[in-house]
Amino acid sequence: MAKFIVGLTGGIGSGKTTVANLFADKGITLVDADIVARQVVEPQSPGLQQIKQHFGEHICNTDGSLNRAVLRNIIFADDKELQWLNNLLHPLIRQTMLQQVAQATSAYVIMVVPLLFENGLDRLVNKTLVVDVAPEIQISRTSQRDNVPDSQVEQIITSQISRKDRLAKADDVIDNQGDLADLTVSVDALHNQYLKLAQQTL
Prior knowledge:
CATH class of the largest domain: Alpha Beta
CATH superfamily of the largest domain: P-loop containing nucleotide triphosphate hydrolases
CATH topology of the largest domain: Rossmann fold
Strand order of the largest sheet: 2-3-1-4-5
Strand content: 5-15%
Number of strands: 5
């Protein structure tokens, strides 16, 4: 049975997780790209085995888990290695996300993907939902949350699709510049809309 999928995205610090959790509170299954990205490189996983074969045993910690710091240093210094890793992981992540969607029992599914448009994953969803805030809010929220300098957050924002392009590609937009009460109202309205659309696609 075809599942109705909503692709939830937004820039760093926009509040994607807060919005996703409000949908989860309504019993909607979340399939989160960041969580799946960690699952496909868990110890003993085929993904990690291939990474180990390619980079060598030193890519793992003593407990068998992936040493992300070592891997990050390698791929940031070498575009070819980054490309190799993306070619390995992107199909694994996509396949695992689709398996999780297929197993979901809720009326529709929210796929939480920070780089939904950048990685072309919007092709997998029926609707795209963007959580939007002004860049200055993104910067202050993220620098406080992650305890990093503003300049680092600005770099991440620059590396993502522009706010203008993201909004242009969005089917639905949640403005997350108000408080939680405003956000809940927005999510309630969209939830009812997605329930109707999911019914129509059955």
